[in-house]
Amino acid sequence: MRNPFLDALAAIVGEANVLAGASDTAPYFTDWRRQYRASAECVVRPGSTAEVAAAVRLCAREAVAIVPQGGNTGLSGGSVPTGARREIVLSLARMNRIRALDPLDDTVTAEAGCVLAQVQRAAEEAGRYFAVSLGAEGSCQIGGILSTNAGGVNVLRYGNSREQVLGLEVVLPDGAVWNGLRALRKDNTGYDLKQLFIGAEGTLGVITCAVLRLRPRPAASATAWIAVATPALAVALLARLRERLGECVSAFEIVSRRCLEAVLAHAPGTPDPLGAPHPWYVLAELEDSGAFEALHARLEAALGECAGRGELLDATIAASHAQAAALWRIRESIPEAQFSNVKHDISVAVSRVPDLVAQAGAALEAAFPGVAIYCFGHVGDGNLHFNVGDAALVPRREEVNRLVYETVAALGGSISAEHGVGQLKREEIRRRKQPLELELMRAVKRALDPQGLMNPGKVL
Ligand code: FAD
Ligand code: MLT
Ligand code: ZN
Hints:
This protein is 36% helix and 20% strand. The chain is built from 15 helices and 18 strands. It has helices at residues 4-13, 22-29, 49-62, 116-125, 142-147, 155-158, 194-197, 231-245, 257-266, 292-308, 321-337, 353-367, 397-410, 426-432, 435-448, and strands spanning 18-19, 43-44, 65-69, 87-91, 98-102, 107-111, 128-129, 165-171, 177-180, 206-213, 215-216, 220-228, 249-256, 280-288, 314-317, 345-347, 373-378, 383-388. The strands form four sheets. Strands 15-12-14-13-17-18-16 form a seven-stranded antiparallel sheet, sandwiched between helices. Strands 5-6-10-8-9 form a five-stranded antiparallel sheet. A four-stranded mixed sheet has the order 1-2-4-3. Strand 5 (98-102) and strand 6 form a beta hairpin. The longest helix has 17 residues, at 292-308. The chain is globular. The model has no long low-confidence stretch (mean pLDDT 97). The structure holds flavin-adenine dinucleotide (FAD), D-malate and zinc ion.
């Protein structure tokens, strides 16, 4: 015998789409890094916007909180229950239809449960390009990337997930459906409401569908693995390449030697791209129209000039898609290769990256002599992943965080560049955001979700 609440949910989404057994629900109740684990009453898997709305209305009536969940690849504990009150997990996985793709408007209308790679493929089949790309793209969903305003490796050229959105459909906390699925490039009719839900981490409503911008598909790409002596030279190299090659620099990722060594140990057989060790590397990608050979030649010439001026130590340019994919595999394996440590996702102005690395590194070395620092990430956006120590240091994460976040604050940076706040940084933003900003955020939350039903315990 099940309880009447679960039966009422089953009447909305079908018996098979209300999961309550321990083995069925376990994957939904734990986050990707296995840092957060708590139970909810069940997992509900609606198949349409109408079903989401009906389930949310029922929860509002019963005062049951809702944890929206996409691919559950989030890194801040936002996608799993807290266990602090009556909650359900609302999985969008069955809402995975591409409703429309319009090559004249250059838009794709994708339901929230579409996996990012599925949208990239649909764009490619239509001769277009969907510009968000990140390591979790085979699992994370459109609703998840929009709700976290995910960054990834293409932000340098195309912007964050937010910049890809023209319209949204959202189920509000009382079950009303806001249809904002517009494909307009210009619309100044008051507040831009969709921006409230992008990056809200499920605390203001459930995103059910989005109109997303497509771009011209680059005909060619060229990928280089470049050794540099310092982060300062990586930042200078980016400026040089952009002066020389312009907008076509689409990715510019930094990788420390320690990160590369972690990948070599984690995935035996992975070749070290340059053979001899160097302290820092950059993985750079260019995308453009025209032929691969021409792009390759432009990159080679630009790198040759930099080498001539002593601005880089060594470099290799991928000669084929397979070689480029192998270089990207190294970069995308870093999160798994150093899984358990004290993680940071921080940003500063690009020019301050060298100061951030030096100052945070010095503060950590003074407090924890010999501590390992895994520094990698989106240096072209001023966004570093600055992970410290190993599992043994995790119990002392407050001390580690304080040292890193004090440095970030002194440099005018952010303690969450792209992964969001979730549960992980909820207390920290109370300390670090201006009181007025927090009050404005609470006012928005109260206005849209007066019962506090949407993803409680996250962000605020
Ligand atoms: P989930 O993890 O399921 O949810 C994330 C948040 O969004 C939660 O708060 C959840 O409640 C909310 N949410 C999900 N769907 C909805 C919806 N439909 N409506 C309302 N709220 C919703 N992030 C980056 O920014 N850049 C990277 O380069 C990057 N690389 C990654 C690499 C790996 C290997 C992994 C595991 C993660 C990476 N991430 C990265 C983190 C992560 O933010 C992204 O994977 C992605 O944005 C999360 O999408 P998801 O569908 O898994 O969302
Ligand atoms: C990345 O850039 O690889 C991600 O944001 C994931 C991570 O930081 O672990
Ligand atoms: Zn990242």
